[in-house]
Fold:
Amino acid sequence: MATELHETIFMAKQERHKNLFLNYKNLNIFPVELLKDEGLQFLERLYMKRNSLTTLPDNLAQKLPNLIEFNNALQMLCPEIGRLRSLRHLRLSNNQLKCLPPEIGDLQDLETLDLAMNQLMSLPDRLHRCLSLQNLTVDHNLLSHVPRQLCWLHRLNQLSMAANRLTFLPLDLGRSRELQFVFVDNNVDLKGLPSYLYNKVIGCSGMGEVLTEALVGLPAEVKVIGSQSDNVVPLEELAMRTMHRIYHHRPAGLNLLPPIILPKSLLDLLQFPLGHCHRCSQAMFTIIYPKLFPLRDTALAGVHRRTTVSFVAYCCSSRCLRTFDLQG
Structure:
């Protein structure tokens, strides 16, 4: 096997291959032959399917500067992955990954990320820094939620999260016009879809029963569920909305003195609100006004026959709640 591996790599160097296939080689360390000289500087795609690597060398990005696709190599993704700044396609399906390093957010050219068939229980918040990401697949993992920061991936076109343990989706999911395909099939505890998804291509078979009066599985930041009879928005929510406007809409060059010192959790919420009103786009932080639209009562009832899920409009006030119309 070692001789065969050496010959494969030697030939790739000699002929300046752009693609190198090292699948099923029983590798448990990264081949040093790939890093000995500059002979593989033309390599763009490295396929290492079904090996047993647990780490990457520190100088991988230096030795393979043009690598744009890395296919299914690791059982544990190490922080060094963030150094492959030219990487465009990262495929790590059918491994035993239990977590991802925050450094994955450094891959700003990444377009495809395939994490299907692993053991992930969460996704890193910093994933939203992958500004070029278009296709994210996390089917068949152990996710109970996904970070709301994913809604800031404005180039994301397809998001597939089938066969997980999702209990709720980010309130803003689907707000981006670019996101057109969302698949959440076989999440039995997921009962509601944000109304932003109504005109998207969605897969939602095998989901939970229709919501009735109470909403379950909401983000922890939701402190109050408002209703049409509420005429006043709580003071805490008004303060958060005011601070959000100060932080995000102040004139250029204006410094706030003295600086406002806030806990990190609060700063994170100000930067990435819980969601935006599905009626007027007002940022929301601690209170939501939900309005249910059972799928069976919509025009999509005949399309999705294997689910009784509801669409949910999340509004910022009782006024927006009363005037929201799913049909636009």
Helices lie at 2-14, 60-63, 235-249, 264-271, 318-323. The CA atoms of residues 89 and 304 lie 32 Å apart. The chain has five helices and 15 strands.
